[in-house]
């Protein structure tokens, strides 16, 4: 199980680093508070949220290995809030089948299905390296 937990965390981290690269590319091309093509009526809070993902995505990826449970919690929070938030804009523009949205929904499903495996691994790692002696 510890190896499986580690593999799941690697998968999560890879996805988060890909998202980070996308956000950095957008930030360099359009600025940190870009509207992601939704126009000037895009809420400032949305622009701040999207810009903040440039920092929170890699933080979550690093925490998956430094503090695994904190990394899992942050990963779940990021993708849940991201999909919920983006669904508002997707609905406005009827973008339900756009690859960016489908990939986010797919990652949300993967995170929710595999997080229990990733969550249980760190406990077992400690138990295997520090057995209880009677």
TrEMBL record:
The keyword Transmembrane helix applies. The chain crosses the membrane at residues 42-65, 72-89, 101-119. Keywords: Membrane, Transmembrane, Transmembrane helix. This is DoxX family protein.
């Amino acid at each position: 199980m510890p190896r499986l937990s580690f593999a799941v965390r690697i998968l999560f981290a890879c996805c988060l680093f890909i998202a980070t690269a996308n956000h950095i590319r957008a930030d360099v091309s359009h600025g940190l508070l870009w509207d992601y093509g939704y126009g000037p009526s895009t809420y400032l809070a949305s622009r701040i949220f999207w810009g903040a993902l440039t920092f929170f995505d890699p933080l979550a990826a690093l925490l998956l290995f430094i503090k695994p449970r904190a990394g899992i919690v942050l990963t779940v929070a990021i993708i849940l809030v991201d999909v919920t938030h983006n669904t508002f804009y997707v609905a406005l523009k009827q973008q339900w089948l756009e690859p960016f949205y489908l990939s986010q929904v797919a990652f949300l499903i993967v995170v929710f299905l595999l997080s229990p495996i990733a969550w249980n691994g760190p406990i077992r790692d400690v138990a295997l390296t520090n057995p209880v002696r009677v």
